[in-house]
Automatic annotation (TrEMBL):
Residues 253-400 form the Ferric reductase NAD binding domain. GO terms for biological process: copper ion import; intracellular iron ion homeostasis; iron ion transport. This is Ferric reductase like transmembrane component-domain-containing protein. Residues 331-357 have a biased composition (Polar residues). Coiled coil: none annotated. Residues 1-28 form the signal peptide. The lineage of its organism: Eukaryota, Fungi, Dikarya, Ascomycota, Pezizomycotina. Pfam families: FAD_binding_8 (PF08022), Ferric_reduct (PF01794), NAD_binding_6 (PF08030). It is a multi-pass membrane protein. Keywords: Electron transport, Ion transport, Membrane, Oxidoreductase, Signal, Transmembrane, Transmembrane helix, Transport. Residues 321-357 are annotated as: Disordered. Its main location: membrane. InterPro entries: FAD-bd_8, Fe3_Rdtase_TM_dom, Fe_red_NAD-bd_6, Ferric/Cupric_Reductase, FNR_nucleotide-bd. Residues 160-246 form the FAD-binding domain.
Length: 422
């Protein structure tokens, strides 16, 4: 019995590492990127911890009369590995991960390496197969790291980033080099002069040249913001590992609905602009509904604050739209919008402004909007829905589509959700 449990634990250990690979072969096969496989990674991890704990308890009970044998090197290694698994499991508490991601990540890497070595020492006989699984697990992890390092090296040579501090705790990071990636994908940014041993994921605003618009929090982003304030327009050495993300090809859809809450627009903006540019080149007509929910009440209620939102484009006559808050379509490529994480350098293909932005002082009725839009689509059309925002917004979108808004003979609908939990 204990032997069977240990095999289950060992196999789950290999599985959880396989599911955590950034360059996972499951991405092209399943259409899911590594971050979307994270729930499976967590499930395999918790299963590994539980089965390892049961394995230890059963053995301790069976050997209660000869506990001195626990001092054998192989058994000590097993005990150390088991304790490391428990500590690693405790470190995955959501509140701790959100508040101290850098610490969590460091614990994750250090304890993973420790556990790998300890499990190998716990079962050092190659003929018993456990060591083969451990070697395979360590091998695929090392290969994944090697691939990621090669990307960092590729984009490090001759590459610099210009960092610019923006109002409302935001930073623009513009790289000298472009990155081969798709709109809406993300990459891990490495700035050695700010944090030598850390990389952090951010969504591309554009990829040629690569550019990020980053909301400032604590840790790395705060240090990067302070560096930008100290020397405005400073150019520093940097590199990226990316892009990642299995984003559907939104160009194939006839109608596109993009829904974002707050900083989730950093995902929907590049997709919308990519579709516009591709449609202009192909001379095809696309319908895009761009929904962005952003809380402005605290600003609008203050009589000392004037709120201006600029809808920008490269060229064309400016059209003033009277709304509250005021909406000004402008030919100036600057953007003083409410969420400056997406501000500036967001330019579309030159087109005249033919529609008026609609600003409503209420929460978006996503279900109603989707139902109305889908009702206008023919049965042979394809509808693509992309959403990035709070979990409640993502859940509401998913539930709205699951209710069968398209009807039995409605259009084909594809939903893509983007939720980062770093």
């Amino acid at each position: 019995m204990p032997g069977h449990i240990s095999r289950v634990a060992t196999c789950n250990f290999a599985l959880l590492v396989f599911l955590a690979l950034r360059n996972t072969p499951l991405a092209p096969l399943s259409g899911r990127s590594y971050e979307q496989l994270r729930p499976l990674h967590k499930t395999a991890g918790y299963t590994c911890i539980v089965t390892s704990t049961v394995h230890a308890i059963v053995y301790c009970k069976a050997w209660s009369n000869k506990l001195h044998e626990m001092l054998i090197t192989a058994n000590v290694a097993g005990i150390v590995g088991g304790l490391a698994m428990l500590v690693l499991g405790l470190s995955t508490i959501s509140r701790f991960v959100r508040k101290s991601y850098e610490v969590f990540y460091a614990i994750h890497i250090v304890l993973f390496l420790l556990i790998t070595v300890m499990v190998g020492m716990h079962r050092p006989v190659l003929a018993k197969k456990a060591l083969i699984i451990v070697i395979w697990t360590g091998g695929i992890w090392f290969l994944d790291r090697l691939l990621r390092l090669s990307k960092f090296f590729r984009y490090f040579l001759g590459n610099y980033a210009t960092i610019t501090a923006l109002p409302e705790d935001a930073i623009r990071v513009t790289l000298k080099a472009g990155v081969s990636s798709t709109p809406g994908s993300h990459a891990f940014l490495w700035v050695p002069s700010v944090r030598l041993m850390e990389t952090h994921p951010f969504t591309f605003v554009r990829t040629d040249p690569a550019e990020f618009l980053i909301r400032v929090h604590d840790g790395f982003t705060r240090d990067l913001y302070l560096a930008a304030q100290k020397e405005p327009g400073r150019m520093i050495k940097c590199s990226v590992d990316g892009g990642y993300g299995q984003i559907p090809n939104f160009n194939r859809f006839d109608t596109i609905v993009l829904i974002a809450g707050g900083s989730g627009a950093s995902f929907t903006f590049p997709i919308a602009l990519g579709v516009i540019q591709a449609a202009a080149v192909a001379h095809t007509a696309k319908t895009i509904d761009f929904i962005w929910a952003k809380e402005l009440d605290q600003l609008r209620e203050n009589p000392r604050v004037n709120v201006y939102i600029y809808v920008t484009r490269d060229s064309g006559p400016s059209t003033l739209v009277e709304k509250s808050p005021a909406v000004y379509p402008s030919s100036d490529p600057s953007n003083t919008g409410s969420d400056l994480e997406k501000a500036s350098s967001i330019n579309s293909a030159p087109q005249p402004l033919t529609t008026t932005p609609v600003v409503r002082n209420e929460r978006p009725d996503i279900a109603r909007h989707l139902a109305d839009r889908i009702a206008l689509c023919a049965s042979e059309q394809q509808v693509g829905v992309g959403v990035c925002g709070p979990s409640s917004m993502v859940s509401q979108t998913r539930e709205s589509l699951s209710q069968g808004n398209g009807g039995t003979y409605g259009p084909s609908i594809t939903l893509h959700t983007e939720e980062f939990e770093w």
